[in-house]
Amino acid sequence: MTTANLPQARFEYLLRLGDNALILGQRLSEWCGHGPVLEQDIAITNISLDLIGQARSIYAYAAELEGKGRSEDDIAFLRDAWDFYNVQLVEQPNEDWAYTIVRQFLFDSANYYLYQSLTHSSDEQIKAIAEKSLKEITYHLRYSSEWMIRLGDGTELSHQKMQTALDDLWMFSGEMLMMDELDTLMYDLGIGADLDAIKPLVDAKRQDVINEATLRIPENPWMQSGGKQGRHSEFLGHMLSDMQFIQRAYPGMTW
Amino acid sequence: MKNNWPLWEVFIRSKNGLNHKHVGSLHASDAAMAIENARDVYTRRNEGVSIWVVESKYITASNPEDSDAFFDPANDKVYRHPTFYNLPDEVKHI
Q1: What is the pLDDT of residue B83?
Q2: Exposed, middle or buried, A74 (CB in 10 Å: 0-12/13-18/19+)?
Q3: 0.95 cut: is pTM over it?
């Protein structure tokens, strides 16, 4: 990517942030009315709404930067899977409460340090969005860490379910921290985060909580990637067909 | 999942300077979870700046059967309200 393409690069960088928030928010919204207990049903859908709110601010800014007259809704509802740049972690299915919590923790632990770093962005708008979102993300990390520990260090059954979820999802935990060409360009411009610098912080946080939860990190270090470049697992298409149905069936429809 | 977590009573202070007020109850396995659940269930519309939780079993309540003896005697003692003073017009804010 060259600096000649800077507006496009910045647009794509914003989509990475926004798509992570939207897709995970959409996933969590699937729990609405199905939570294991009333209190967690409300808690997890609260987090869903926080994330969708973050996606809205990011898309609104991306649309403004793009200057093609698209709205935040156009960006959310009128792109197909290969134009989404979220990490593959966030599109993985809810499965059960253990998977949902492990996915949330792996995401929050990286997202927290990412947004902390973005509060120093030279882009005033990204900085403002990061500052506002960081308060929410701080709570998300507290919430998912707490549940990792409760269930990991809980009963024999809860421990085993959490370990299974961690074994299955661990290979998706690295993508957020892999610095590619676009990340490097954004960092060099002072806009984006230095993923290499936050990786040790994320690793330490994950290790701490996973230890306290009496779980163990899988030994296989191989990591999935591709979501940030638009290559997704089979799950994203199904999510979009659900999420985008109304706008596809009744274009331009509003509440 | 059968919910056999204990019940907690939740008190929210809506603004600094005001009292904590009872807002409802919820289930949680311990105090830390009760605080987080209360945050999610009772303060997501900007209702509070402080939360107290107390396990419901620690609340001692008056017995409704005692109502007559407890509360009726106060009914006809209007003189316990300070409504029999003539306030000078100059006194404000009372």
Answers
A1: 76
A2: middle
A3: no
